[in-house]
Amino acid sequence: MTVDNTRRWWTLAALSLSVLVVALDLFVLTLALPTLSADLHASSSDLQWFVDAYSLVLAAALLPAGLFGDRIGRKRLLLAALVLFGIASVGCGYSTSAAELIAARAVLGFAAAVILPMSLAVLPVMFNADERPRAIAAVGGAAFLGYPIGPLLGGWLLDHYWWGSVFLINVPVVVVAIIAVAMLMPESRGGRAPRVDGAGIALSSGGLMLVTYGLITAGENGWSDPAAVATMLAGAGVLAGFVAWERRGSHSLVDVGLFSSRGFLWGTILATLVSFALFGLVFAMPLYFREVRGYDALAAGVRMLPMLGGLLVGLVLGQRLASAGRRAVSTRVLVAVGFLVMGAALAAGTRTTAATGSGFTAAWFAVTGLGLGIAMPVAMNAALGALSPARSGSGSALLTAMRQVGGTIGIAVLGTVLTTVYQGGLPAGLTTVARSGVTAGIAIAQRAGSAALLADVRGAFVHGLDIMLWVCAAIAFASAVLGLAFLSGRAGPADEAAEAPARAGMSV
User: Fold this and answer.
1) What predicted TM-score, i.e. pTM, was given to this entire model?
2) 17, 103, 340, 475: least buried by Cβ within 10 Å?
3) What separation in angstroms does the CA of 495 have from each of 53, 323, 361, 460?
4) Does domain 5-188+260-504 have CATH number 1.20.1250.20?
5) pLDDT category, 493, cuts 50, 70, 90?
6) According to CATH, where is 1.20.1250.20 located in the chain?
């Protein structure tokens, strides 16, 4: 049954809200870690697991979530995940120990692993080739809104309420999303329910979890850490076994043949590279604003907002150019322009110093968001447009998994770059604690009452930040070249013949 036009766009708003709540939860936590450490008597290991429990379960559950969405219905699975996300948010907010919070965060990660791919999976089913770029821009934009809004909202809540509020804020948003999805979103599933690939689920979940944990460990202990290297190699081996199994299986968890599609392959690669660069940026800049510039949590969040403004302008501009692109501007050119703008802004950001004014950081933040808003929806449309309606759930989960791993790699690699340069710029003789991070280094300098040491610590961190931004800029420039070289001239949507039966199979 065909869904009327107005209802489809209201459904899109509900999907965007579902994605936004996941993005907010990821970024509001970062500002709450110092408070959690004191109130829950959490060790450094506990603090790491507050973040890692979410990431590990999310990575492990993404691909199975896509399969079950195709099998039992995407709407049904999305509603169940939203309910679970709300319950887990309450569990996080009222945790009385580190162990309780870690367990609740793991449940949050499981729910998010369903919400993210299901929100993308219905787009190839509900929207035709002309409409799909706008739909992807809305959902993708909602995900990226969490970057600037999360620190801002988290800072305001931490300044006015107790730490549990950063989790409870999810609840009203989830309730609205549940009502909207239940009332507006049509049910959809694959034409034939795929069999459950138990071996594929075990191999993909185990491999992604091992790779993610190895990357997290490398980010914490350095890339020479034997346990981190061994874990990553083991994960890579398991994933290689997963690919071999999927090639042999007649009822596979994912269609590895998708990578023979130029649109899916390069759209996914470009989306992953952006996640690599951007995750490092959004985790490093709050440290710059809080520790180097000395702003409180709310003020630091406010200074992340220019990226939001640039992103919104980029999304609107990109969609107008994409519509014109069917006549004049090719997809590959549009992607390249977006990444070039993003790379130029990040390169300009390398001039940031400990005394840089807010106007300069706001400017390059805004232009970074502008480039992101132009390029990302087009790259994702190239990938999603290659998916058949029957396997849009598993295909979207594969895209989401690649982006998630890319973000994790970005945090680990770029965090290592930042830490290595920071440590190399510190005066000789400082304690190991001071070298562990800028927060500890500044605390030690302030306790010692040494203005010179404080300036050295801040200067070392900013130098590391600038080098990290050069790496991010290089990734953006490389993405522009790859887009020009390998993307097709126009986005590769699924053909209309495939879309028609998909729409006919939706129930309202």
Assistant:
1) 0.81
2) 103
3) 40, 18, 44, 53
4) yes
5) very low
6) 5-188+260-504
